[in-house]
Design a protein that fits this description.
It is a single chain. The chain is globular. With 458 residues, it is mainly α.
């Protein structure tokens, strides 16, 4: 055997014995950071809302419609966004998404240059454009987790990126409250927009598919692939045979009917709508509730709102860890996902108790418990990664997110009407808490076995 052959064999042995890299955790960190900014940009209006309401002379119903502008576009663009992800891959579409939503957020800071009527219209339109731009974000998160993580790690991975919505409140809500208090509400949009544009270039540098990432080694790639990770998702797919027109590797709009006719998925969709009702209450009316109903200043509300957010963040991580631990102990995916979801949502219903207490600290404590439960139960994206047909993970995630984010349209408007008719948030808290209970019923009664859907040929 020659020296070169010995060297090659030794090199191969060293590579084979090398420990697996952990690039997937860097990918998860980037998902967490981007999702944090994503939710912070959604929440800008809730922090600026009280000052804006006074300056522009808006009533609660008008505020409700402006709050909902984001979600009208977000819902409409979910399926096109999912199709774009399946067609062009997560990296490119997500990078474009980050840049555009940040750019439109930045522009919102300039509405004060116009008269009141024009400012309201422009604000609605710019929030609408932010919704369009953010549409691919969560389906992309789902695709990337399905690609980079084996089944037994997806619950934790999905919970971590999903818990970024709470971390956004922890990190940015006090910051945005301080900016509003010191410099004025329009500067909130300027700062957040500029930060997101910078983040776009970091994303392009770090994100790749598993098989294309320059930092991953063979051991980690095998660990992901053998554990059920869809590492080939964004690889080039062969063209369909001539005349067949049935390339299973491309997103097909005809598959939507199959997804909608699946009982398990329908139950998951209903559950996600109800979970997002809680989310959008927190993102839109919660700071207003603290100021208007509980008499806090804008600055104090910004800091106080971060307390339930911390608990939601912790709950989100705990829910994912519990779910994955149950899987590793040999429990079924069905039981491992349902236990945290049902338990967490039951805990979320405690927010209704705020209607029966007066002390500010007690209100904050109850909300902290409720949002901890919401975090524990927010495993919908892990369920998507477990159930989505591998050919159309992006489209399936888009449909899931469409149902979920209809709550972004209905929640601000319904609460706006409740406030206008009653002058109190009591009915609003009952409305939000009831949605948590419906989630429990949906997962226990409608969703049976949680498993990956197999598509039928079109």
């Amino acid at each position: 055997m020659s020296i070169d052959q010995v060297g090659a064999k030794l090199s191969a042995t060293v590579r084979a014995s090398a420990k697996a890299s952990h690039v997937r955790y860097l990918i998860l960190f980037m998902l967490f950071v981007v999702t944090t900014v994503n939710y912070a940009d959604r929440a800008t209006l809730s922090i600026a809302g009280t000052s804006m309401k006074a300056e522009l002379g808006l009533d609660p119903v008008m505020m409700g419609y402006i709050f909902s502008a984001f979600s009208w576009a977000y819902v409409l663009a979910q399926l096109p966004g999912g199709w774009l992800l399946d067609r062009f891959g997560s990296k490119k579409i997500y990078a474009l998404s980050i840049f555009l939503w940040s750019f439109f957020t930045l522009l919102q800071g300039g509405v004060t240059w116009f008269g009141t009527a024009a400012a309201v219209v422009l604000l609605f339109l710019l929030r609408f454009m932010v919704g369009l731009a953010e549409a691919p974000s969560f389906p992309a998160n789902g695709r990337i987790v399905a690609s980079w993580f084996p089944t037994a790690e997806r619950g934790t991975a999905s919970a971590i990126f999903n818990s970024a919505q709470y971390f956004a409140a922890v990190l940015f809500t006090p910051l945005m409250g301080w900016i509003t208090h010191v410099y004025g509400w329009h500067h909130v949009f300027t700062v957040m927009g500029a930060f997101g544009i910078l983040l776009t270039f970091i994303w392009i540098k770090i994100i790749h598919s598993p098989k294309d990432h320059p930092m991953i080694n063979k051991a980690e790639l095998e660990h992901i692939e053998q554990g059920g990770g869809l590492v080939d998702m964004d690889q080039a797919k062969p063209k369909a045979a001539a005349g067949t027109g049935t390339d299973a590797g491309k997103a097909k709009w005809g598959y939507i009917k199959q997804l909608l006719s699946n009982r398990m998925l329908l139950g998951v969709y209903i559950g996600q709508y109800c979970i997002n009702t809680i989310t959008y209450f927190f993102l839109t009316w919660f700071p207003v509730y603290l100021v208007q109903e509980r008499g806090m200043s804008i600055l104090k509300a910004g800091f106080v709102a971060s307390i339930p957010a911390v608990c939601g963040f912790v709950g989100g991580v705990v829910g994912g860890l519990i779910s994955d631990r149950l899987i590793k102990r040999g429990n079924s995916v069905t039981m491992s996902r349902k236990i945290p979801i049902v338990g967490g949502m039951l805990l979320s219903t405690t927010m209704i108790l705020c209607n029966y207490v007066d002390a500010q600290w007690l209100v904050v404590g109850i909300m902290a418990v409720a949002f901890f439960g919401k975090g524990v139960g927010a495993l919908g994206w892990a369920v998507v990664a477990d159930t989505a047909p591998k050919e159309i993970v992006g489209l399936s995630g888009g449909l899931f997110n469409t149902f979920g984010n209809i709550a972004g349209i209905t929640t601000p408007i319904v609460i706006g009407y409740i406030l206008k008719e009653t002058g109190s948030f009591s009915g609003a808290l009952v409305f939000v808490g009831a949605n948590a209970l419906v989630t429990v019923i949906s997962y226990l009664v409608i969703v049976k076995e949680i498993k990956r859907v197999e598509l039928k040929p079109l």
